[in-house]
Amino acid sequence: MKTVKAHREPLVRIVKRDGIALWKNWLIRLAAVLVALLLSGLFIYAVTKLNPIDVYVSMFEGAFGTSRRIRITIRDAMMLLCIGVGLAPAFKMRFWNIGAEGQVLVGGVATAGLMIYLGRAGTMSTPMMLVVMALASIVAGAIWGVIPAVFKARWGTNETLFTLMMNYVAIQITSYCVALWENPFGSNSVGVINQQTRSGWFPELFGLDIGLNILLVMILTVGMYLYLRFSKQGYEIAVLGESERTARYAGIKPGLVFIRTMAISGAICGLAGFIAVSGASHTISTSTSGGQGFTAIIVAWLAKFNTFVMLLISFLLAFLDRGAQEIASTFNLNDFASDVITGIILFCIIASEFFINYRMVFRHRKEAEAK
Q1: Which of 99, 109, 127, 320 is 20 to 30 A away from residue 242, measured at CA?
Q2: Phi, psi of 360 (to 5 degrees)
Q3: Looking at residue 159, what is its pLDDT?
């Protein structure tokens, strides 16, 4: 007679949490940061024999040591936040928009082209130019976002691959425009646009040259929070993100929501290109977005699409980026070493999300609870 072995519970099981208190949520994140600093300190000491505290102080100095460094950190954080806000509605409805890089670039190209041609003509005031350039960047970004949404809605294409490939198309368009506008000819660079007249540049606001950057991004941040939280369209996005079948049952048309939401997402990313060109670099190149379109995915995902939380995460990532550059130059570390430190910190923060959403149940604990 065949013997049947009794099933034995595994030593550890992973169970999804039904919910977690807000204070526990932030306590886990704080613990993740402390673990990250400890691991980074061990790495720093193992590689350089330096005091990790000195390195951390240097990182802080690199991000906030002078007024210029503070300005750059805020500028970079605002750029990340703007793109993250643009990605939030698409990701919330589980439309994986990996094309923010391209949407930023086409918005920047539209802005740079108008800066060059309208600046040469000299027939339009800077405030009017800013309005025209903003509208052009919004339309360009929206078109770049709508194209993959239409294919998804009509033919069910994979939006991840489609939006990713659109990035490469945008890069080639940018390269063509740079070659068309290069100044001087043969330099392979557009150079600073309208450097003498500053036509089309953001004016100072609140005594800051990045004041208008901050104002625009904060308006978008508050607006997107209200849109996702309280509007009918925000509700449709949330339902579609939970289940497409449920959305259809509720009378929501997924194809229409895909197209509408991606138009909004692309438009905001295109506006980020306008801010990058007119409000920051005053030039255009294939590196204008600088990989921030991909980094902003981390911002949106970690914040769980809450735009106010995105503000904190954007500043954290901008601080890590500026701090890594500073320690690389101060302590003669190569870029790879500073990137490893940034990677350790990001990995721990991302890993903390696992412990927020799941818990581990040990066999002996379950048996004790049963008794």
Answers
A1: 99
A2: -100, 130
A3: 95
Q: Are 300 and 100 contacting, i.e. CB atoms less than 8 angstroms apart?
A: no
State percent of the chain over pLDDT 90. 60
Q: 227 to each of 85, 236, 238, 341, how far by Cα in Å?
A: 11, 11, 11, 37
With b meaning 16 or more CB within 10 Å and e meaning fewer, what string describes 94-118? ebbbbbbbbbbbbbbbbbbbbbbeb
Instruction: Report pTM.
Output: 0.90
Quickly list DSSP for 105-172: HHHHHHHHHHHHHHHHHT-S-HHHHHHHHHHHHHHHHHHHHHHHHHHHHHH---HHHHHHHHHHHHHH
Residue range 117-128: average pLDDT?
89
Please tell me the predicted confidence (pLDDT) of residue 335.
66
pLDDT tens digits, 253-276:
999 999 999 999 999 999 999 999
Q: How many residues does the chain have?
A: 371
If pLDDT is split at 50, 70 and 90, which confidence band does 222 have?
very high
* Distance of alpha carbon 243 from the chain centroid: 25
Instruction: Specify the pLDDT at position 104.
Output: 97
CA distances from 16 to 19, 304, 360 (A): 9, 17, 9
95 closest CA partner among 59, 148, 43, 49 = 148
Q: Which of 111, 64, 94, 70 is nearest to 254 (CA)?
A: 94
Place of tokens 């294939």: 286
Q: Are strands 12-16 and 358-362 parallel, antiparallel or unpaired?
A: antiparallel
Nearest CA to 254 among 357, 139, 149? 149
Structure tokens at 115: 């800066």
